[in-house]
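Contributing: when you submit paired examples, paste them exactly as shown. First protein:
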Amino acid sequence: MALRTKIGRSIGPSTRLRQLLPCHLDLDQGQAVGLSLIRPGVSQTRVRPPMNEAFRRKILELIDQHRIMTVATNRPDGWPQATTVGYVNDGLTLYFLCAPESQKAQNLAHDDRISLTIDHDTSDPMTISGLSMAAHARPVDDPAEVAKALSMMPAKFPEYAGFPIPKPEEIRIFRVTPVVISVLDYTKGFGHTDLVEP
C-alpha cells in the first residue's frame, strides 16, 4: 500500500515508517498518526514499545535532575503557546502551578493536551540528553492532592523557602499525565531518541 503525503508525493511501502514520523500522512484507507497506523475497521497496530524498567529509571533521572520545563498549550485561536514553568513530580506525574487568570490556564480550560520538553544546554553535542512528552494537563481540585503538590515545592526550590506558600485559592495547580514520552540521548548516537508509552 502506498502512502500519499500532504504534498501529494507517493511513497512505496518499503519506506521505513520512522522516516516519515512525526508527520501526519494520508493513507488510501486510513491515517498514520504519530507512531500508530490507524485504519477504519482495523484494530490499531501498536509500534511504540511499553516502558521497561530501564527507560523508567532514565526518565525519572532526567525529571529529577531538572526543575524547569517548557510547556506548549493550544490557544483558542489555534496558535500554540510555549511557556517556561517550574515543576515538581511524584514519579512520572508532574505538577505545575500558574495564576488562574493566566493565558496558560485559559488555554488548558479549552484543551488539556500539552507537549513539554525537559532538557539543558551542553558544550558537548554528543552528551545532549532530555525528554519530551505528549500529555494531558488537568486542574487539581482535590485539596489533599493540592496540599501534596505544594508540599513538594520547598525541596525542589529551596531558595524560595523564605517566601510564603501561596494559598490554594490564589493559584491553579495542574497535574500532567504523560501519554507518550520521547527520550533524547545523543550518547547512543547523533539524534537518538526512544519513544515509549508509560
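Second protein:
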Amino acid sequence: MPFRKSKSGSVFIKVITSILGRNSQNVSHGHCSSVKRGDHGQRGWPTLFRPSYVVSKIAISVLTRIQQREFDQDSRQDIVVNSVHPGYVNTDMTFNQGPLSPEQGAVAPTWLALLPKNVEEPRGDYVWLNKQIVDWIHGPMPECIGATKINELHDEHDKIYLL
C-alpha cells in the first residue's frame, strides 16, 4: 500500500513534538520514512491494520499518560485525562461493518466523561469498550474485534478508489 501523507499526520508530528520535544519529531519522521520505504515491519513498527493509524493511537495513549502526570502535579484539583477504545463501531470509518452500534461505542467514553469527583482511577489510563482499564504496555490486550475485517475493507476500498 502506498503511503499517503495527510494533514492529520502533520498535526500528529506537531503535537507530539510540542509535548515530548525534538526527539519525538525524529521518531515520527522515522516512522513515516519507514512506511514510505515499506520496511516498517523489519524496523519494529506495527504492520497490522494501518501502521500510521496504529502509531497515532499509541501516541495518543502516551500523550494521555504524560498529560495526567502533569495534571497530577497541577495546583488545580481533579483534572483527569484518559484515552478510550470504543470498539469496532458501525460507522463510515468501518464502512458500516462494525458489529457495535454508535450507542454501544459511546458507553465507555460516556462513563469516562461522568466519572465522580476525586476519582482515583482511571487516571491517565487506556480504557477498553467494556470500561476495563487495559495495560497497553505490559498487556495482555483484549481481543480487538474487527481488526482483520476493517483491514480487508480498507484494502478493498484502496483498490477501488486509489488505483
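If you have annotations for the second protein, write them as plain sentences, like these:
The domain at 7-161 is CATH 3.40.50.720 (Rossmann fold).
Helices lie at 7-20, 22-37, 51-72, 102-105, 107-113, 147-161.
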